[in-house]
Amino acid sequence: MKIERLQVNRGIQIPNENRCTNIGGVARVGANIFVIKTKQDNTVSTVYRYDSNNKYITKKFTDKLGHGNGLAYGNSLAYENGILAVPPCGNYLNVIDAKTWKRTQYKSSRYISAVAYRGMCVWLVKSQKSILETRLDERTKKLKFTDKWKIGNPVENAGFVISQDITYKHEKLFCLYSNSGKNQNCIVVFEMVNGEWTPTKIYESGRSDRLYEWESLDVSNDGDILIAANTADGDYLYQGRLYL
């Protein structure tokens, strides 16, 4: 399996509005970038929407978005403006209307730690060591699972034991892992081979002697990558490029 070093550049710092100090997810929507941060006790979350000039507005949520360990933009039949999906690290999925900011909670029979949009109103969620395909059932406000795959962690033996975020582009699944003991991170690219998600490439960050943990990622159609990172001197967005 091919391993490449991913070079990223530090961009804007995300402030601690509403005392939310724990950065979670990032998602690019056209010219806008959405970021979510949460208080340490998970009681308050703040969603930031940045424009192309890095000016932002925020929306405060106090109705338990959960840990907010990721962010994905997509669609479902009941929403005209597109939606932001926020995984809570729990048995439900938060869905936020990207225009009105209205939140709806969809119950899940499985624990959810990450979410990605596959297209055509189909979502992928990570649950323990599985990837589940799902749709939003608008009538019951539950997740309707339609397929399931086992997925391993090919970098676990190298110390990357913390599973962070996932995203989906070009029929590839990008899974983010961290090695907090060495302040090092990596992205594993999975492709569907013979009906199974199979690792085909690894992108690694360099090691750091200070806190440097990648929390979430977004990949554009052109391979431009955004990474939300928790560092020793604050929460930042980093930019780089994947050669897909």
Structure description:
The chain has 244 residues and is mainly beta. It has one domain: Neuraminidase. The protein is built from no helices and 21 strands. The strands form five sheets. The chain has a five-stranded mixed β-sheet, with no helix packed on it. The chain has a four-stranded antiparallel β-sheet with strand order 2-21-20-19, with no helix packed on it. A four-stranded antiparallel β-sheet has the order 3-4-5-6, with no helix packed on it. A hairpin with a 5-residue loop joins strand 9 and strand 10. The radius of gyration is 17 Å and the shape is globular. The chain starts with a strand and ends with a strand. The mean pLDDT is 94.
Corresponding CATH superfamily: TolB, C-terminal domain
Mean pLDDT: 94
CATH architecture: 6 Propeller
Strand content: over 45%
* Count of alpha and pi helical runs: 0
Shape: globular
- CATH topology name, in short, is Neuraminidase
| Arrangement of strands in the largest sheet | 1-18-17-16-15
Could you give the distance between the termini?
Answer: 15 Å
Radius of gyration: 17 Å
Q: How would you spell out the order of helices and strands? A: EEEEEEEEEEEEEEEEEEEEE
Whole-number count of domains: 1
Name the structural class. mainly beta
Low-confidence stretches: none
The count of strands amounts to: 21
* Major beta sheet summary: 5 strands, mixed
Helix amount, in percent?
under 10%
